[in-house]
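pls ignore typos typing on phone
3-methyl-2-oxobutanoic acid + seq
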Amino acid sequence: MTTTRGLRDREEPITILTAYDAPTAAIVDEAGIDAVLVGDSMGNAALGYDSTLPVTFDEVASRTAAVARATEDALVVADMPFLSFGVDEAESVRNAGRLLKEANADAVKIESGPHTVDMTRHMTDVGIPVMAHLGLTPQHVNRLGGYTRQGTEREAAEEIIDLAGAHAEAGAFALVLEHVPANLAGAVTEALAIPTIGIGAGPDCDGQVLVINDAVGLGEWAPPFSRQFGDVRGEMLDAVEAYRDAVRSGEFPADEHSHVEEDLDELY
Ligand code: KIV
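k done
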Protein backbone atom coordinates (compact mmCIF):
# COMPACT_ATOMS: atom_id res chain seq x y z
CA MET A 1 0.00 0.00 0.00
CA THR A 2 1.61 3.28 -1.08
CA THR A 3 1.31 6.15 1.39
CA THR A 4 2.13 9.83 1.00
CA ARG A 5 5.13 9.31 3.31
CA GLY A 6 6.13 6.22 1.32
CA LEU A 7 6.82 8.42 -1.72
CA ARG A 8 9.70 10.10 0.12
CA ASP A 9 13.34 9.05 -0.15
CA ARG A 10 12.75 6.45 -2.87
CA GLU A 11 15.76 4.95 -4.59
CA GLU A 12 13.86 4.62 -7.87
CA PRO A 13 11.89 7.42 -9.57
CA ILE A 14 8.22 7.65 -8.53
CA THR A 15 5.73 6.61 -11.22
CA ILE A 16 2.29 8.21 -11.52
CA LEU A 17 -0.39 7.87 -14.23
CA THR A 18 -3.86 9.32 -14.46
CA ALA A 19 -6.95 7.10 -14.52
CA TYR A 20 -10.60 8.07 -14.64
CA ASP A 21 -12.42 4.73 -14.36
CA ALA A 22 -12.21 1.40 -12.55
CA PRO A 23 -10.84 -0.87 -15.33
CA THR A 24 -8.04 1.56 -16.18
CA ALA A 25 -7.18 2.06 -12.49
CA ALA A 26 -7.02 -1.72 -12.01
CA ILE A 27 -4.49 -2.02 -14.85
CA VAL A 28 -2.39 0.89 -13.55
CA ASP A 29 -2.44 -0.61 -10.05
CA GLU A 30 -1.62 -4.14 -11.27
CA ALA A 31 1.38 -2.71 -13.17
CA GLY A 32 2.82 -1.44 -9.88
CA ILE A 33 2.49 2.29 -10.60
CA ASP A 34 2.99 4.17 -7.32
CA ALA A 35 0.04 6.58 -7.53
CA VAL A 36 -3.09 7.06 -9.63
CA LEU A 37 -4.04 10.66 -10.26
CA VAL A 38 -7.72 11.21 -10.97
CA GLY A 39 -6.78 14.34 -12.88
CA ASP A 40 -9.12 17.04 -14.07
CA SER A 41 -7.48 16.18 -17.41
CA MET A 42 -10.52 13.88 -17.51
CA GLY A 43 -12.21 16.94 -19.07
CA ASN A 44 -10.30 16.42 -22.32
CA ALA A 45 -9.32 12.76 -21.88
CA ALA A 46 -12.64 11.21 -20.87
CA LEU A 47 -15.52 13.69 -20.87
CA GLY A 48 -15.24 15.31 -24.30
CA TYR A 49 -14.68 18.90 -23.10
CA ASP A 50 -12.03 21.00 -24.82
CA SER A 51 -10.41 22.13 -21.56
CA THR A 52 -10.41 21.23 -17.87
CA LEU A 53 -12.51 24.27 -16.88
CA PRO A 54 -15.99 22.67 -17.19
CA VAL A 55 -15.08 19.65 -15.02
CA THR A 56 -17.29 19.61 -11.93
CA PHE A 57 -16.67 18.53 -8.36
CA ASP A 58 -19.25 15.74 -8.77
CA GLU A 59 -17.53 14.42 -11.90
CA VAL A 60 -14.19 14.21 -10.06
CA ALA A 61 -15.82 12.70 -6.97
CA SER A 62 -17.65 10.00 -8.93
CA ARG A 63 -14.56 9.06 -10.96
CA THR A 64 -12.35 9.11 -7.86
CA ALA A 65 -14.70 6.71 -6.09
CA ALA A 66 -14.59 4.35 -9.12
CA VAL A 67 -10.78 4.49 -9.22
CA ALA A 68 -10.50 3.94 -5.45
CA ARG A 69 -12.76 0.86 -5.63
CA ALA A 70 -10.43 -0.70 -8.22
CA THR A 71 -7.10 0.22 -6.60
CA GLU A 72 -5.39 -1.93 -3.98
CA ASP A 73 -1.81 -0.67 -3.70
CA ALA A 74 -1.38 2.65 -5.47
CA LEU A 75 -2.00 5.98 -3.75
CA VAL A 76 -5.20 7.58 -5.09
CA VAL A 77 -4.89 11.34 -5.60
CA ALA A 78 -8.00 13.33 -6.58
CA ASP A 79 -7.55 16.57 -8.50
CA MET A 80 -9.59 19.51 -7.26
CA PRO A 81 -11.40 20.98 -10.26
CA PHE A 82 -11.64 24.66 -11.24
CA LEU A 83 -13.47 26.76 -8.60
CA SER A 84 -13.95 23.84 -6.20
CA PHE A 85 -11.18 25.59 -4.24
CA GLY A 86 -9.74 29.06 -4.00
CA VAL A 87 -12.90 31.13 -3.70
CA ASP A 88 -13.60 30.54 -0.03
CA GLU A 89 -11.10 28.77 2.20
CA ALA A 90 -13.61 26.92 4.39
CA GLU A 91 -15.45 25.65 1.32
CA SER A 92 -12.14 24.59 -0.26
CA VAL A 93 -11.14 22.57 2.80
CA ARG A 94 -14.61 21.02 3.02
CA ASN A 95 -14.53 20.03 -0.69
CA ALA A 96 -11.07 18.51 -0.32
CA GLY A 97 -12.24 16.61 2.76
CA ARG A 98 -15.25 15.23 0.87
CA LEU A 99 -12.90 13.71 -1.73
CA LEU A 100 -11.26 11.72 1.10
CA LYS A 101 -14.38 11.05 3.15
CA GLU A 102 -16.91 10.25 0.41
CA ALA A 103 -14.82 9.27 -2.63
CA ASN A 104 -12.02 7.44 -0.75
CA ALA A 105 -9.13 9.44 -2.17
CA ASP A 106 -5.89 9.27 -0.19
CA ALA A 107 -4.87 12.83 -1.06
CA VAL A 108 -5.85 15.81 -3.20
CA LYS A 109 -3.93 17.75 -5.83
CA ILE A 110 -4.35 21.51 -6.16
CA GLU A 111 -3.21 23.76 -9.00
CA SER A 112 -1.18 26.08 -6.84
CA GLY A 113 -0.24 29.73 -6.65
CA PRO A 114 0.29 32.42 -4.02
CA HIS A 115 -3.38 31.99 -2.99
CA THR A 116 -2.99 28.28 -2.09
CA VAL A 117 -0.17 28.43 0.48
CA ASP A 118 -2.39 29.07 3.53
CA MET A 119 -5.04 26.71 2.15
CA THR A 120 -2.42 23.95 1.83
CA ARG A 121 -1.44 24.50 5.46
CA HIS A 122 -5.09 24.45 6.57
CA MET A 123 -5.84 21.22 4.65
CA THR A 124 -2.66 19.57 5.93
CA ASP A 125 -3.51 20.62 9.49
CA VAL A 126 -6.93 18.96 9.33
CA GLY A 127 -5.43 15.76 7.87
CA ILE A 128 -5.84 16.17 4.12
CA PRO A 129 -2.57 15.41 2.29
CA VAL A 130 -1.96 17.96 -0.49
CA MET A 131 0.00 17.49 -3.70
CA ALA A 132 0.87 20.97 -5.00
CA HIS A 133 1.13 21.77 -8.73
CA LEU A 134 3.23 24.60 -10.24
CA GLY A 135 4.48 25.63 -13.68
CA LEU A 136 1.79 25.18 -16.33
CA THR A 137 -1.49 25.02 -14.43
CA PRO A 138 -4.14 24.35 -17.10
CA GLN A 139 -6.99 25.82 -15.02
CA HIS A 140 -5.27 29.20 -15.64
CA VAL A 141 -5.25 28.80 -19.44
CA ASN A 142 -7.26 31.98 -19.97
CA ARG A 143 -4.91 34.06 -17.83
CA LEU A 144 -1.77 32.42 -19.29
CA GLY A 145 -3.02 32.78 -22.88
CA GLY A 146 -2.36 29.13 -23.81
CA TYR A 147 -0.69 25.91 -22.68
CA THR A 148 2.82 27.29 -23.00
CA ARG A 149 6.01 26.42 -21.12
CA GLN A 150 6.30 28.33 -17.84
CA GLY A 151 9.27 29.64 -15.84
CA THR A 152 11.40 30.41 -18.87
CA GLU A 153 12.34 33.92 -17.67
CA ARG A 154 14.46 34.40 -14.54
CA GLU A 155 11.75 36.27 -12.60
CA ALA A 156 9.10 33.65 -13.38
CA ALA A 157 11.54 30.85 -12.54
CA GLU A 158 12.35 32.47 -9.19
CA GLU A 159 8.65 32.80 -8.44
CA ILE A 160 8.20 29.04 -9.06
CA ILE A 161 11.17 28.25 -6.78
CA ASP A 162 9.74 30.51 -4.03
CA LEU A 163 6.22 29.07 -4.34
CA ALA A 164 7.59 25.51 -4.34
CA GLY A 165 9.37 26.22 -1.04
CA ALA A 166 6.30 27.91 0.44
CA HIS A 167 4.05 24.93 -0.40
CA ALA A 168 6.59 22.44 0.96
CA GLU A 169 6.84 24.50 4.14
CA ALA A 170 3.01 24.63 4.32
CA GLY A 171 2.95 20.83 4.40
CA ALA A 172 2.46 19.67 0.78
CA PHE A 173 3.66 16.06 0.54
CA ALA A 174 4.72 16.32 -3.13
CA LEU A 175 4.88 18.86 -5.94
CA VAL A 176 3.93 18.43 -9.61
CA LEU A 177 6.00 20.57 -11.97
CA GLU A 178 4.36 20.85 -15.39
CA HIS A 179 5.94 22.10 -18.64
CA VAL A 180 8.90 23.98 -17.17
CA PRO A 181 12.58 23.97 -18.23
CA ALA A 182 14.42 20.85 -17.07
CA ASN A 183 17.10 22.91 -15.32
CA LEU A 184 14.45 24.80 -13.33
CA ALA A 185 12.82 21.49 -12.32
CA GLY A 186 16.27 20.20 -11.34
CA ALA A 187 16.89 23.27 -9.16
CA VAL A 188 13.48 22.94 -7.44
CA THR A 189 14.09 19.22 -6.85
CA GLU A 190 17.48 19.98 -5.33
CA ALA A 191 16.00 22.63 -3.03
CA LEU A 192 13.01 20.67 -1.70
CA ALA A 193 12.79 17.87 0.85
CA ILE A 194 9.46 16.69 -0.64
CA PRO A 195 9.40 14.76 -3.94
CA THR A 196 8.91 16.60 -7.23
CA ILE A 197 6.85 14.92 -9.96
CA GLY A 198 7.54 16.15 -13.48
CA ILE A 199 5.42 16.29 -16.60
CA GLY A 200 7.28 18.01 -19.39
CA ALA A 201 9.89 18.98 -16.79
CA GLY A 202 12.88 16.83 -17.74
CA PRO A 203 14.60 13.90 -16.05
CA ASP A 204 15.77 15.48 -12.79
CA CYS A 205 12.48 15.32 -10.87
CA ASP A 206 11.96 12.62 -8.23
CA GLY A 207 9.19 11.08 -10.34
CA GLN A 208 7.13 11.42 -13.49
CA VAL A 209 3.41 11.65 -14.26
CA LEU A 210 1.64 11.28 -17.62
CA VAL A 211 -1.97 11.40 -18.75
CA ILE A 212 -2.94 7.77 -19.41
CA ASN A 213 -4.41 8.51 -22.86
CA ASP A 214 -1.05 9.96 -23.96
CA ALA A 215 1.00 7.14 -22.42
CA VAL A 216 -0.97 4.24 -23.90
CA GLY A 217 -1.85 5.88 -27.23
CA LEU A 218 -5.58 6.30 -26.70
CA GLY A 219 -5.94 9.91 -27.76
CA GLU A 220 -5.73 11.48 -31.19
CA TRP A 221 -3.20 14.06 -29.96
CA ALA A 222 -0.48 14.10 -27.29
CA PRO A 223 1.77 16.92 -26.07
CA PRO A 224 5.34 16.88 -27.43
CA PHE A 225 6.81 16.16 -23.97
CA SER A 226 4.80 12.95 -23.67
CA ARG A 227 5.67 9.52 -25.07
CA GLN A 228 3.29 6.93 -26.49
CA PHE A 229 4.16 3.54 -25.00
CA GLY A 230 1.37 1.64 -26.79
CA ASP A 231 -1.33 1.91 -29.46
CA VAL A 232 -4.54 1.31 -27.53
CA ARG A 233 -6.57 3.41 -29.98
CA GLY A 234 -5.36 1.27 -32.88
CA GLU A 235 -6.08 -1.95 -30.95
CA MET A 236 -9.58 -0.79 -30.03
CA LEU A 237 -10.35 0.31 -33.55
CA ASP A 238 -9.23 -3.09 -34.89
CA ALA A 239 -11.41 -4.89 -32.32
CA VAL A 240 -14.48 -2.71 -32.98
CA GLU A 241 -14.14 -3.17 -36.75
CA ALA A 242 -13.71 -6.93 -36.32
CA TYR A 243 -16.91 -7.04 -34.21
CA ARG A 244 -18.80 -5.00 -36.82
CA ASP A 245 -17.67 -7.30 -39.63
CA ALA A 246 -18.44 -10.49 -37.67
CA VAL A 247 -22.01 -9.34 -36.91
CA ARG A 248 -22.62 -8.21 -40.48
CA SER A 249 -21.33 -11.49 -41.93
CA GLY A 250 -23.31 -13.64 -39.47
CA GLU A 251 -20.10 -15.12 -38.06
CA PHE A 252 -21.01 -13.77 -34.57
CA PRO A 253 -22.71 -14.97 -32.44
CA ALA A 254 -21.65 -18.56 -33.24
CA ASP A 255 -23.00 -21.76 -31.65
CA GLU A 256 -20.61 -21.42 -28.69
CA HIS A 257 -22.06 -17.99 -27.87
CA SER A 258 -25.68 -19.18 -27.90
CA HIS A 259 -27.83 -21.47 -25.77
CA VAL A 260 -30.73 -23.53 -27.12
CA GLU A 261 -33.26 -24.66 -24.47
CA GLU A 262 -34.55 -28.03 -25.69
CA ASP A 263 -37.79 -27.83 -23.66
CA LEU A 264 -38.73 -24.81 -25.71
CA ASP A 265 -38.50 -26.66 -29.02
CA GLU A 266 -42.25 -27.28 -29.20
CA LEU A 267 -42.85 -23.52 -29.11
CA TYR A 268 -41.91 -23.48 -32.76
O1 KIV B 1 -5.12 16.75 -14.52
C1 KIV B 1 -4.06 16.12 -14.67
O2 KIV B 1 -4.02 15.01 -15.19
C2 KIV B 1 -2.83 16.74 -14.20
C3 KIV B 1 -1.54 16.11 -14.58
C4 KIV B 1 -1.25 16.38 -15.99
C5 KIV B 1 -0.44 16.51 -13.68
O3 KIV B 1 -2.88 17.76 -13.56
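The two ends are 58 Å apart (CA to CA). DSSP finds ten helices and eight strands in the chain. more later
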